[in-house]
Amino acid sequence: MDGMSLLTITVLAVFVGFEVVSKVSSTLHTPLMSGANAIHGIILVGAIIVAGQATDGWVLAVALLAVVLATANLVGGFVVTDRMLHMFHGKKEVARTAAKADNK
Amino acid sequence: MNILDPVWTSLLYLVAAVFFILALRGLSSPRTARRGNLIGALGALIGVITVFLSMRLDNIPWILGSIAVGTVVAAPVARGVKMTQMPQLVAAFNGVGGGAAALVALLELSHSEDPWVRLAIVFTLLVGAVSFAGSGVTFAKLQELMTTRPVVFPGLPVVMAAVLLAAVGAAVAIVLTGSLVLAVLLMLLGLVAGVLLVLPVGGADVPIVISLLNAFTGLAVAASGIVLGNVLLVVAGTLVGASGTILTRAMAAAMGRSVAGILFGAFKGGSTAGSTAVSERPVRSSSPEDVAVLLGYAQRVIIVPGYGLAVAQGQHTAAELATALEARGIEVDFAIHPVAGRMPGHMNVLLAEANVPYESLKEMGEINSEFRTADVALVVGANDVVNPAAKTSSGSPIYGMPILEVADARQVIFLKRSMRPGFAGIENELLYEPQTSLLFGDAKDSLAKVLGAVKAL
């Protein structure tokens, strides 16, 4: 893809990024940070590309290190965010969970 | 494998990018947050599968093995981490992401002739390395492997300026020559810069720096997308860079600080005011039974939870106490400071874990006017977020931070481990006020004793 198209996409993505989180409540600051953190783990795609094109031993070694780090960022980020969000309940859900616990 | 032709590859990357946008959108509202996160994970999965199907890749067994290693290391840690230790885990995951981006850029240097691509490479190298090292220091601070106070030494600004100048010099030389040796040097300079950037940041400001470094990693990923000509990386990285910037500013605003003030405030000196010295002034201390009587015969109680509650894993006991008081017809709310815990929004997560319904979790702006009508404000392991010094003492490191106005309540009870000052390292005048009494001990123990005494009333 040519430079101008990439620049266009980048600038549009900046505006989308500003727009989607412009009115986040402080309740969700931590999960949002963690979720955004997971998303940049997509650098894994880049790490896979360089590892897949490596012909040298040391290049492959460094690329595989990048794959491990990126995977940790990606997988760990989504898992920990999910765990955090799992804990948010409304009043009704709390009552339901409590009722379930009583029935056991 | 060239299973997908380029059009399908581009379309699938577009779908993944849209999923990331939907994920961020979902994450900004409590109702849709969990689904948003899952959509993001699905987007990532689509992206990773697409890269395997779209081009000829060698070393596939090695790559799959490395992905397995990364998963096996990260997933159990993410599953098992205590919710109180989550901020440092987020910092760690952010750091490794930045490190991965820097390594990818380093390896692409030998394939690049275009000066613009080389410029993107030096940017990724530097920013990725800063993010990696900076996140390492925030991790060490939050894990209390090192002091949480600002670390400043004479000449720090000079050293920082020298490192940045050298980095700019190396960057220019790399763009001109494509030298791999200089690229490694630039990465090392980035690591030093990352450490120097975060060392002077103290205490409660650390989470904001995590958010800032998160945005940095996003930008590094976007730049590596330009290097590789991969649109998904460009879009995902830019989204995180932009949303992370907004989030950083929102967090800083919740503490009444500017981002520049947080990063460079300690350089100016004087902001490390406050001491760990324990004051000799007398305070009123109470027994759990006294506290139970105060609570049990109140009409309105506001509980103010803080990091001490989180460390003691006392959130379940606090929730039980609230239920027991509500059973006596008392109106109970939790007042949540935006930075209660160790990270903005952290306390909401902890209390949600204890099944406190989110209707009972009141944010600062909502609850501050209600302290006037409260019979008792029960402060559990919080200190800085209720410290009036934030309003009155201009030399204080927390000056300007909005606080919970617990001083307006008729009675204030502090559950504290000791008279040691809180995270910010400053004394709290409120402890010596006549309407204040203290119950010393571990937050969970104290709450359990108070709970027992309330039930026995």
Structure in words:
The complex is a heterodimer of chains A (104) and B (457). Chain A is an all-alpha fold and 104 residues long. Chain A has helices at residues 3-20, 29-39, 43-52, 57-86, 91-103. Chain A is flat, with a radius of gyration of 20 Å. In chain A, 79% of the residues lie in helices and 0% in strands. With 457 residues, chain B is α/β, with parallel strands linked by helices. Chain B has 17 helices and six strands. Chain B has helices spanning 6-27, 33-54, 60-80, 86-108, 115-142, 156-177, 180-198, 206-228, 231-254, 259-264, 288-296, 307-311, 315-327, 346-353, 364-367, 389-392, 443-455, and strands at residues 300-305, 331-336, 361-363, 376-380, 411-416, 436-440. Chain B has a six-stranded parallel β-sheet with strand order 3-2-1-4-5-6. In chain B, α5 (115-142) runs antiparallel to α6 (156-177). The model of chain B is unreliable at 269-278 (pLDDT under 50). Chains A and B meet through α1, α2, α3, α4 and α5 of A and α1, α2, α3, α4 and α8 of B.
Q: So what's the overall shape of chain B?
A: elongated
Helix/strand-derived class of chain B? alpha/beta
Biggest sheet features of chain B: 6 strands, parallel
What is the strand content of chain B? 5-15%
**Terminal CA distance of chain A:** 60 Å
Instruction: Give the overall silhouette of chain A.
Output: flat
List the helices and strands and how they pair.
The complex is a heterodimer of chains A (104) and B (457).
Chain A: H1 3-20, H2 29-39, H3 43-52, H4 57-86, H5 91-103
Helix pairs in contact in A: 2-4, 3-4
Chain B: H1 6-27, H2 33-54, H3 60-80, H4 86-108, H5 115-142, H6 156-177, H7 180-198, H8 206-228, H9 231-254, H10 259-264, H11 288-296, E1 300-305, H12 307-311, H13 315-327, E2 331-336, H14 346-353, E3 361-363, H15 364-367, E4 376-380, H16 389-392, E5 411-416, E6 436-440, H17 443-455
Parallel strand pairs in B: 1-2, 1-4, 2-3, 4-5, 5-6
Helix pairs in contact in B: 1-2, 1-9, 4-5, 4-8, 5-6, 5-7, 5-8, 6-7, 8-9, 11-17, 13-17
